[in-house]
Amino acid sequence: MLVLHLLGHNYISEDGVPFKVSTKTLALLTYLTLQRRPQHREHLAELMWNTPDALRNLRVELNRLQHLGLKLFPARQSLLELRLQTDLDQWSKEADTLPESRLSEWLSLGSSLPLSGLEDLGSDAFRAWLDGQKWAISQQIETTLSRVYLRALQGGRVGAARLIRVHAEELGVQLNTIQVEVPAPSAVNFERQEVRQQFQRVLQLARAVPQLVLLSGLHDGGNRELVQQLVAQSDWQVIQMQAVVQSELLQATFLHQLMRVLPPDSQAAAWKLLTNPSGTGEDLIRVWTLVAASGLPLVVAIYDLHLLTPFLIDSLRFAMDLPISLTLVLSSSALVGEHVLREALGSIDHSRVHLIEVPVLAVQEVMEAVREQQALLNADQLRAYATRVVQQSDGWDLHARALIGSEFPLSSVHTTPPGIVRNTLLSELGGLSPLLRQSLARLAMVYSPLDRNVASVLLGQGAEETLVEGVRQNLLVTAAPEETILMPHLIYQTSDVEDGLGFVSEPLRVALAGTLTSLERREIRSLLAAYFVPSNPALAHHYAQRAGLEQPATSLLSQAPEQPGQATVPAASLWVKPEISAPATGMGQTSRQECRTGNGYRVALEQGQLQILRRGLYGPPPSLQLLWPSVPAGHWHLVARLDVYDGAPTWAESTRPYALGVRAGQSARLIFGAQATDDYLEQGILHAPGPPIPFGRWFVLEGLGDQGILEVSVRMVDIALTIAELRWGPCTLLPVKKSMAVLSDHYN
């Protein structure tokens, strides 16, 4: 079946395969299809050619169609009529029965200006007709998007509604929501006081001369809502756009949105620029002249930047020299890095370039945002809820809002990120080649640290190149089996000799793996099952089961545990005090300082307290050690709480997880929240399980300890552990504000 494609670049296809015809023929077929009534040959000839030999040219094009096997018109008929099926018809029809699983794919079909590629064809009359058709199709797209958006809101599908709204903003489409009385999708707002203060200072400077903001963070998604909040209740007008490589599309999106804020007497000039671009540098001057003439204080934000195109750089440089109130915002995720943007900006006045980093969410920040919504929770339950949101969301605003909106139970451990999060993560990878993205998706099926050998099994000769490019793109990071952070300054450094790699986050790994088909996943699991038989038969058996295979031809060998050895055991018994009130936080410690390791551990100091969070890869949990300088022997005291606790998977029983380990000098490592109940030796160190600790509330551990380097350790797949107080002999290590003066000389 022939399909005429009107959304985006204009072309025809047959059974899904593009069918090559001349641009004149394409214009002719498009005109006839959209006119939907018979047309005289003479009229068509004049419309398309407007020359003395127009009729002959028309006959030539019709003969070419015959030779291509497209017998669309009867021979020697003066009236021509055609009604091809269009992608616009299919797109509009599917809107009424669209499943949420196909929402992103459906939206992508209407992501460009309609009828692109025909602008320079035909007579003046044809080009005028074309402008009118573009406007009519744009209105149809707006109506259809509004209809789907309303249905999503009324059905309570907040993530889908937000995705449609963001897409509409990218196109410059105004959604019709007059009939909706449903709360906005992003009802939960986080204060972001530090970012707000920095942005307000930039806006003050921008009143006099244009300023440029590089807005960076772990992810780009969610920054739209943040920018909207930052300028709320002010006279600044906001234009928000998605970055695209095509300069024509970026300019058209800008003009579409600009018309919404321009005064009526300027809108006609903007529409003329939109429908009749010259394709030269003069367009750039005319667009910004419109902005300058309006006198509006304007914030222009561009998101998901992978690179700065020459057109965008020229536009930024021109705008920065205008005598207007203007704030330009370029937003990118950590997957790109603000250094890429800084290098591309070149000669732009760096005194007017401001780096504003959006930090990860703090637990206290989430508690304040949801306090009214979760009014039925007591203080312990509210902290547990907020901690789980921060742990599951990686501290990312967009993910946190989705989790809060889903009202997930406090006891659940989420393994699959919400749809809006998966879609946003994948959109941030839009700059990757299809081959690299497919290769990374295959690697995302591995449940253990990546190395060259396992990558070669899945990717063949392209393995090395994929790993190198994944590291360069900051999608893969070094992941050692054991990691160390020096306290109290959160100093973490990977080793150059370590060759294990892991994905930068678990949600990203899950999102990539989800792009594979079920057949591809089964094939990859079969390969991994065969590969792991010699080295890890339990893991091989797990892959085989997931692939629907019989058990691998091997006996599942159990490793004999090391026998207990000689080590110093604490002189006094430990005891737990589970019923205590919430400890006081560090005075003046309102900001959050966080360090992230290659294995996904996040160690943070917030209000003087220490937090250890991990949303783990579905694999053996790595070890994390936090080391303080040497402490004297004596009585120690620790106040903590455990709000997320998930150990090793069933096929990784040889790795013994625990939620908290404490050790000083050469003594045994005391472990809590462990599956083991008897002492055991691991890597020459005696591990002594302590008494059970409570879950979801504050508790106290106390005992007598040796002198030497102090180590607090964790080994968990998923964890949220908060330590509010830690004293060892005369040394107060937490809250950290009290300990800085005591310990600072150890790091000089």
Question: What does it look like?
Answer:
There is one protein chain. This protein has an 8-stranded mixed β-sheet, with no helix packed on it. Strands 16, 17, 18, 19, 21, 26, 28 and 29 form an 8-stranded antiparallel β-sheet that branches. It has a 5-stranded parallel β-sheet with strand order 8-9-10-7-11, sandwiched between helices. It has 25 helices and 29 strands. It is elongated, with a radius of gyration of 31 Å. With 748 residues, the protein is an alpha+beta fold. α11 (264-275) runs antiparallel to α12 and α16 crosses α17.
Overall helicity: 25-40%
Derived from helix and strand composition plus strand pairing, the structural class reads alpha+beta
Shape: elongated
Count of strand segments: 29
* Radius of gyration computed on alpha carbons: 31 Å
* Unreliable segments of 5+ consecutive residues: 178-186, 553-561, 738-748
Q: Strand order, main sheet: write it out.
A: 14-13-20-27-22-23-25-24
Overall pLDDT level: 82
